[in-house]
Amino acid sequence: MKVEDFMTRQVIAVTPDTSVLAAAKLMLEHKISGLPVVDAMGRVVGVVSEHDLLRRRERDEGAERPHWLELIAERAGLAEEAARFHDRKVGEVMTGDPATVTADSSLDKACRLINDRGVKRLPVVEDGELVGIIARADLVRALAQSMEAVAATTARDVSVDARLTELERQIWRSRTRSARPF
Fold it and tell me: Is 159 exposed, middle or buried (0-12, 13-18, 19+ CB in 10 A)?
């Protein structure tokens, strides 16, 4: 199976100059957890994810709990954080130089990259340009379809086995009936 069989072709992407707030709104609106980042030529230059948006700032390293949890629980610094989300650009928080696959890559390759890189999605490119995205959910769909196909084949095999067993029983029965003593 190939990536092109399961990838999403209509991809929502942002540019490095998109505000972090606009990217967050797109993710919420479309119920997705990440976006490919493309340059003016449509070439993939990064991926921005929920993780990138919630990542601790340098000065928060070593804090007892994550910065975003403090924002929610105590509303401490919420105004400052809102300004930061509006002023900061995707290019500042994105993960650059992401792993990519082509549409004719095997699903096995996509699975290995997602697992090895610890990511949830891979941009699909042709000549460097974004043509789709393959996410873990797409791989789950591929797995489910494969399991259904195997289950259907197994069910047919069991049916064939049962028929062969019955045929053998009938052949042996007819042989024992027609056998004549010497």
Answer: exposed
Biggest alpha carbon–alpha carbon distance for the chain: 104
pLDDT tens digits, one per residue of 95-117: 998 999 999 999 999 999 999 99
**pLDDT, tens digit, 9 for 90 and up, residues 27-83:** 999 999 999 999 999 999 999 998 888 775 544 455 554 444 445 445 555 556 556
Distance separating alpha carbons of residues 37 and 160, to the nearest angstrom: 52
44 occurs within a structural domain: yes
Q: In what order do the strands lie in the sheet with 44-49?
A: 34-38, 44-49, 95-96
Q: Is the distance from CB of 108 to CB of 131 less than 8 angstroms? A: no
Instruction: Look up the domain containing 73 and give its range.
Output: 3-135
* Neighbour tally for 32: CB within 10 Å: 19
Beta strands in 24-128 (DSSP E): 34-38, 44-49, 95-96, 121-126
Query: Where residue 126 sits, what CATH number does that domain have?
Result: 3.10.580.10
Count helices and strands (H / E) in the chain: 7, 5
